[in-house]
Amino acid sequence: MRTALVLATTLVLCAAGDAGAQQPAPQPQPAAPHAPQVVAVATGETRVTPDRATLLVAVETRAATAAQAGADNARRLRATLDALMKLGLTREQLSTVDYSVSPDYQHDPQGQRPPRVVGYVARNTVRADVRKLDDLGRIIDGALAGGANTMGGIQFTSSRMDEARREALTNAVTKARADAEAMAKAAGATLGELLEISSQPYFEPRPMMEMAQMRGAAADATPINPGEFTVSATVTARWRMR
Prior knowledge:
By secondary structure, the chain is α+β, with helices and mostly antiparallel strands.
């Protein structure tokens, strides 16, 4: 009886093993096709009226020696700074951006002799931060009257630059979505979920007037018209199509 029971159990186990061996191996499922996507790049703009400016005011002096050129320059620059502060600018709004003393060379027109030193040139450049654009003309005239003889490098900006940049970004995203919807429709699809959106690095536009040599004060108040400038932003966005 025990021998028959062992034999039956062995037969059952063998049958189960044979059945498992005969089952087909699972086949890999085909990969799902890549979902179609649409990418749009767009630039948005907004216009801004400047309400602030920075101005480069320079004093340039010449003398037979470097020490004398530097001394004359310091005297004239001090008078220029005093004139600017009387017009309402604070010390925090006036900062030195460049100072140099260098030989003044005279060159032979025929090129037969090497250049020779005929004196020295001292130059001191100060940046004035003007927070009321209506004062800019008076500040220019005051600097010239105080002793400045090189003026310019005006850069206009606005106190609402961050707000203007965000408006430009909003316009860019709106344009990018409209473009993406048009492309999806032309392809016989509709726009799905937003997958990614990014903006390019932003550089603040600053309309600029170059430095110019000036002598003396202007007869009338110097007119300044900054106009407007454009703030732009570019975005890249990617959507799924369905």
